[in-house]
Structure prediction request, 708 residues.
Amino acid sequence: MFGANGLMNESAGIQAEYIDLERYDDIQQEEIGAAVWLLGEQKELNADDVRRLQARHVAGLIVRYAAGGESCLDVYDKKPKRVRKAKLGDICILVRSRTGIEILTQTLEDSHIPYRLEGGSLLFDTQEVRDMVNCLRAIDDPHDEVAVVASLRSPAFACSDVELLDWQESGGGWNYTRQIPDSKCDDSSVREAFHCLHSYHERRLTDAVSKLMAAFVRDRRLDELDLAERRPRESWRRRHFLLEQARTMEYSHAVNPHSPPLTLNKFLEWVKLQQNERARIPDVIVPEPDDDAVRIMTMHASKGLEFPIVILLGLNHNTRNDSPVVLFDNESGGAEVRFRKGIETPGYSDISDSEKEHKDAESARLAYVAATRARDHLLVSMYHTNREISSVTGKIDEFRSALQDYCTEEPEDPVGIAMLPMPSMEVVELTDYDADQWEADRKNANQQRMQPRAVTPSLIAEIAVTDDTTPPAEIEDKDTEPSSDLPSIRGRGGTAFGRALHAVLQDIVNIVLTRTPLPEGVSIDNLVDELDGEIIRSTEEHAESHGVHSSDEIARLARRALRNPALQTALVSPRMWAEIPVAAEIDSPAGPVVIEGIIDLLYQSADGEFVIVDYKSDYIADDAVLNAKMKRYQWQGAAYAAAVQKASGQSVKDVQILFVRIDEAKSIKNLDELIAQLPKLVTVPQKIWQRNSGDSDDKVLVKNTHRI
Prediction:
C-alpha cells in the first residue's frame, strides 16, 4: 500500500524512501490471522450518507470481531506473551479530523458499543461540552437568547419544549436580568432557571472561571445526572476536560502576573476559537483497566502509540488546493502572485503545483503514521464519494486490485445496524426498612469514617479531659511558634520556651551518653558541673533559633533538671535514649489506630524494665494547678507507655512527669488501668474536636488531621 508504486514513492525533497516494517515480537502474523483489511468502496452518494454507511459497517465489524464470538479476532498480548481473543479495549478508531464524528459516535451508541473520545480537539464536539459552553454563554451574556434557550433545554435545567412555549406565550422574555412579574408562570421551571442564571451572572465578576464552573456543575448536580447514562465516567471526563482547560489558563496567569487575568468572556472566546479552527489540544488519557471501551482519537494524537487493532477512517479527505494569493519560491527567493483565475504571474502555476505535491506527500505520510499504529490488525476504510478520487483513499482504490494478495476484503453487511448485547440487569425488590435502624447504621458508619488513623499522646490527653468540669490550667508562656528545620524541634508541640528547653536538655543528654559509664570516683553532679559551658552554648543557640529572649532562665532550668533525681537516675542507667520517636498500632472498637509521638527520655532500669521521663516547663502556682496538670499528663504518659510496650514487647515500669520549674517529678499512678482505657478513648475524638471548634464535622476533621 505504501511501498513501490504505492502512496509513498520516493521523490527528492518531497518524499523519503519507504522501508518495509517487520514484527518485532516472537510470533508470526499467521498465528493471529490477516493483518490488513479493506472495507467499503466508492459510493454515488453525498458525504453524510457515505459516513453513515461507513459508521454502520465499522459498528458491525466491532460487534463481530470483539464480542467474544467465533468471529472474534486473535491478538497478541505482550504482558503474558500469549495470543488471546480481542476485546473492545484493543480497538482504536483513528480519524483525520472531527468532521462527521457525530455520525460515528451516534452509531456506536445505537449499537451499544462503549467508546472513549481521546484528544482535546474531539472533546470540543461532544454534547456534554456543548451543553456546558451554552450554559456559560448564557451566564456571561443574558442578551444571547440562543445560548439562554439552549441552556434551558440542557440537562442543567431540563426545561421541556412545552414549558418554553408556555413561557413564551405568557409574554415571558429570554433576558433573565429583566424584572419578571410575580404572576407569570409562578411554578414554571423556567423561572427557577432564570434565578439560577442571574445569580451566576452576578458571580462571574468576582469568582474565578474554574471556580464558577465547578460551582455550577455541583449546584445543578450534573455529575449525578450522568449516572443515568450508560457510561457516566465518559460524561464526567468530557465536562471536566473543559474545567481543566480553565484551570490551566488561570495557572498561566498566576505564574506570569503580567498576562491579563482570565475572564469568562475571554475563556468562551478561546473555546470558540478552538472549535472554529479545529485546534488540537493534548489530552493524555491513561486507560482504566476496568473500562473496556473502543478508543477514538485523531491521527495526529496517535503518534508514538500502538494498538492491537486499528480502524482507519477519514483518508477520503481531498487535499485542499486553496493556494494563497502570494507564493514564495524557495529556490529563487522570488514571489509569484495570483489575483484570480487566469490573472497570475508566469511562475505561479508551477509553484502551486509543487505546493499541492508537497501536501499530497504530507497526507501520505500522515496515513503511514496512522497505519503503523496497528500492531496486529489494520482495518482501512475505502468509503469515499465520486468527488474524493484525489484523496488518499481514491489513490489506494486505483491499485486496489494489486493488493488482493496482501489485504482481506471485508464486504458490507446488508443487515441492519449490529448491536452488542446489553448487560443483564438484576431486578432488586425494594422492601420496607426500619428507619431507626437505618439512621443508627448511618451514624455508626459516619463515626467510623471520621476516626483518625493516627493520634498523638497529647491529643489523647485532650480527649480524656474533655468531660472534666475543671478546666486545665493554662501555660503562661504564649510565644508564637516559629517554623524551623532543626532536628531538635521539628514536629514538637508546646511553646517556644518549652521547645528551646527541650532542645537544650536533648543536647546535654546526648553529650552525657558519650561520657558514660562514668569513671570511678566521678559523680553525675561532677559531670554536670563540667558541662556547664556546653549548657550555656546550647542555650544561646536554641534561644536564638526559637526567638526566645530569656536564655538565662532556660540555662537555669536546664541545670535544675539535670540535678533532679529522676533525670540523674536515667543518666547513669546502662541504656538510655533521648528524643526518641515511637509509633505503634493499638486495636480500638473503630479499628486499628496508630499512636505516634516523641519521648523526651527513655531508659532501661537495672531490672530491665523501661522508664519514661517527660519534661514539662509549665508554670505551677499551687497544688490545685499541679493536680490539674497531672490529670491531663497522666493520659499522655500512658499513651507513650502503650506505644513503647507494643513496639518493643517489653513492659514500662514507670512514667515520670518532670515539672522543671518546681523541680518535682510525679509518677503516674494506675498506669496499667490507664493503658487499658486507651482503645476506648481514641474512638470518640468528636468530643474534643467539637469543643475546640464550632465548624462542621468535615471541616473539624480536616483541621485536626493536619494537627495529628
About this structure: The longest strand covers residues 575-588. Confidence is low (pLDDT under 50) at residues 469-493, 687-708. The CA atoms of residues 230 and 425 lie 13 Å apart.
